[in-house]
Write a structure and sequence with these properties.
By secondary structure, this protein is mainly β. It has four helices and 45 strands. It is found in: Cell outer membrane.
């Protein structure tokens, strides 16, 4: 009931704010329109719409609609452009106080980077939008694990079987499973607060890769709508509104890999002029035994249903439901000495009983309403049911020489949330102020437990109890064109957290309790468009990541919401028509680098940290058919309060790079040769143990026609021996008298070939 009360109050406040914000709009006009594919009539989202010889511009929404407000009366040339689409324009006359409409139909064409412009007028903080839009068309995505690495500069590592969330490296962070990178899909939060395994745990495997349509990337803590975990940045994924075609896909590969996918449109495209609606369902089943000596027996099922439609000329509704379930066995991390002395092979296991299961059910609805005075109210409610069960053994026989150090972590969670935004363009003289006010809340009701186990049999309980954690947030953001070229974006965000934990067992008062904490995060960004091919930016902002509720309520001195301060300068530019570059020099300071170690039920605090870095992304069209891309990310991270020589941030990467060559031929032939690289880096504070870097090559080949596609992919083309997750860990094997501290690792994928075939209908 509290959640529904908050939703009612939030919606009322947003509308009241909009009514109170009414400004003079005399002698101005509104231009509305739609963009669709000329062949099928399918609405096109994400298409850029501009007025020729003017600064006004926008982007089509998920139903292909767009709107430009505050226009002086007159005649305009409206031009729509999109990657892989031929530009189209139309002349329209608008009268003062009136609304004019226009419909634009764009045919498909070959991808040409010369058509790209770099500014993002509706969302200037999305400075990587051009790069992401190019990647969406060029970079191959073969599995859910390929989705997060679409974020430029982000590298992942798996270390407990295919069903567990990946370890994330981004902007000089070992962000664990998501502690410093905010991930969402269709407005649903992916990061889990106070998770049984780690703070910010972001398991993205419930997403079917073929349904993903767009990715919006935001580096640093500069954007107001992101709060918790958005210190290094955030990635917003959206699924398709409508499928281009229904599809059935089969995939087979080495290590007993089998995958089947079906995506089916449920509604036909409606004629122009009618209210648009789209619906589809998608399903995915995956099985693999993986490359370890002990079969992984990995099984995953994903299901999705989505509806998007216009309820009226001024409102639209999106409803989505999804179901995910997965189970697997895992080989876990292994010690180097175990391989060196022949105890196990490189793909062996010390404790082959590791593994687990997880499931997630999502439901969300988004109602978008056009209000008077050219305002838009967007309201979203969501619910997630989540279950997690993981068996691990990281130290083997260090603490229990008889039974071993196996643990079982469980998380049974109900997650409820509401997000509302009221956006409106206001006229300040001849300038337009774009304003957004947001209110939201999120409630996590979770039962979590950490238990000792042996061969998946529970021996005793370390900690077990219920977490109630609720976040209330609000923000106000304004974007103002100070001149035709200079844009100011400023925002203020406020968050308040309520934490509660109640231990299940008797005499648990010392580990139960309640706490609350607030945080205010200002943002200030400047963008200067030198011309349509060059944009400069200066950005700054405060952010934070939250601590685990169990640590907060049991330690009065705990740093609850350690602050992050970030700033950067950079540019998105085109030195030649066929080359797009995004470059940024950045710094990020953390008040306290916290990691909740769910394996031990404790919080590790590294104290203050400082990172400096440089990001470079380039996309180049070498010929009409051949494209090259590269992401290069340099960083230097240090512990501020530790002496030189003992101030390394463990596992923080200093160099990551991905890139490749992609061929797109009109005949339907497509090919891509790609590399992945991460440098060797310190695994502990004094750099006495190093995590080893790697350089890998992957390849993808496909042939696509109107009714079918066949393809092949190879990971680790050169069959390099490499390590995924790596840690400096103190362990003891069964036959050892004393513990040993050394590098432990999960071996990376060897040469791994897969074939796939799809039918379209």
């Amino acid at each position: 009931m509290r959640l529904f009360y908050w939703i009612t109050v939030a919606g009322t406040m947003l509308v009241a704010w909009g009514c109170g914000a009414e400004a003079r709009a005399q002698n101005t006009a509104v231009l509305r329109g739609s963009v669709a594919d000329s062949a099928s009539g399918r609405p096109l989202s994400g298409v850029s719409v501009r007025l020729a010889d003017r600064v006004e511009a926008t982007v089509a929404d998920e139903l292909g609609r767009f709107r430009l407000t505050g226009l002086p009366a007159g005649t305009y040339v409206v031009r729509a452009t999109g990657l892989g689409l031929a530009a189209r324009q139309q002349t329209v006359t608008v009268a003062a106080g009136q609304t004019a409409t226009v419909a634009l139909r764009l045919p498909a064409t070959s991808l040409t980077l010369a058509e790209v412009t770099v500014a993002q007028p509706r969302d200037p903080n999305q400075s990587l939008a051009v790069i992401s839009n190019i990647d969406r068309l060029l970079r191959p995505v073969n599995s859910a694990q390929d989705l997060l690495p679409l974020v430029p500069g982000l590298v992942i590592a798996q270390h407990a079987g295919g069903g567990k969330a990946e370890q994330i490296f981004v902007r000089g962070f070992d962000a664990d499973h998501g502690t410093d990178f905010n991930v969402s899909i269709d407005g649903l939060p992916v990061n889990m607060v106070s998770h049984a395994h780690g703070q910010g745990y972001a398991d993205f495997h419930f997403v079917i890769p073929e349904t993903v349509d767009q990715l919006r990337v935001y580096k640093g803590p500069y954007t107001a709508r992101f709060g918790d975990f958005a210190t290094a940045g955030a990635g917003e994924f959206t699924t398709k509104t409508r499928l281009d075609q229904s599809q059935v896909k089969l995939e087979v590969g080495q290590f007993d890999t089998r995958r089947a996918v079906a995506l089916v449109n449920l509604l036909p495209v409606r004629p122009t002029g009618q209210r648009q609606a789209a619906a589809y369902v998608a399903g995915e089943y995956t099985f693999a035994n993986s490359y370890f000596d002990a079969k992984q027996d990995f099984r995953r099922f994903n299901g999705l249903a989505k509806y998007t439609g216009q309820l009226s000329d001024r409102s639209s509704l999106m409803v989505l439901g999804s179901q995910f379930a997965s189970k697997w066995d895992a080989s876990g991390q292994i010690p180097e000495r175990g391989v060196d002395d022949g105890t196990i092979s490189r793909f062996g296991s010390i404790d082959p009983t590791e593994g687990g299961s997880t499931s997630r059910t999502n439901a969300t609805a988004v109602l978008t309403t056009d209000l008077p005075h050219n305002a838009v109210l967007r309201q979203q409610v969501y619910y997630t049911r989540y279950d997690f069960n993981l068996y691990s053994n990281f130290t083997f026989f260090l603490n229990d020489p008889v039974n071993g150090d196996g643990i079982r972590q469980t998380d049974a969670r109900n997650l409820y949330g509401y997000t509302g935004t009221y956006s409106r363009d206001l006229q300040l003289g001849s300038r337009t102020l774009r304003t957004v006010a947001g209110l939201g809340t999120r409630l996590d009701d979770t039962h979590i437990a950490l238990r000792n186990s042996a061969r998946r049999v529970v021996l005793d309980t370390i900690r077990s109890g219920r977490v109630y954690e609720q976040n209330f947030n609000g923000y106000l953001e304004g974007t103002l064109g100070l001149t035709d070229r200079l844009t100011l974006n400023a925002a203020l965000r406020a968050d308040y957290f309520r934490f509660a934990f109640r231990e299940d067992r008797a005499a648990a008062d010392s580990v139960s309790g309640r706490a609350g904490k607030g945080r205010v995060s200002p943002k200030l960004n400047l963008y200067y468009d030198v011309n349509p091919a060059v944009q400069l930016f200066v950005r700054s902002g405060f952010g934070f990541h939250s601590n685990d509720a169990r640590a907060v309520v049991t330690n009065a001195a705990a740093n609850v919401l350690p602050r992050a301060i970030g700033y950067e300068v950079g540019s998105t530019f085109k030195p030649v028509p066929a080359l797009v570059i995004n470059a940024a020099l950045w710094a990020l300071h953390l008040q306290d680098e916290l990691i909740y170690v769910g394996d031990e039920g404790v919080v590790e605090s590294a104290g203050r940290t400082r990172r400096l870095g440089f990001d470079l992304s380039a996309r180049y069209q070498l010929t009409r058919l051949l494209f090259a891309d590269v992401d290069l990310n340099l960083s230097r991270g240090r512990l501020v309060d530790e002496p030189e020589g003992a101030n390394r941030i463990p596992l923080a990467p200093s160099l990551t790079s991905v890139g490749g060559l992609t061929l797109r031929a009109p005949s339907g032939l497509g090919a891509s040769l790609r590399y992945r690289h991460i440098d060797s880096r310190a695994a502990n504070e004094d750099n006495s143990v190093q995590a080893r870097g790697y350089f890998l090559l992957d390849a993808v080949l496909s042939y696509t026609k109107s009714r079918f596609q066949v393809g092949a992919s190879v990971e680790n083309l050169l069959n390099v021996e490499w390590n995924q997750a790596q840690f400096d860990t103190t362990t003891r094997l069964r036959n050892e008298a004393e513990p040993v501290s050394e590098l432990h690792f999960t071996p990376g994928t060897p040469f791994y070939a897969k074939l796939n075939a799809s039918l379209f209908f």
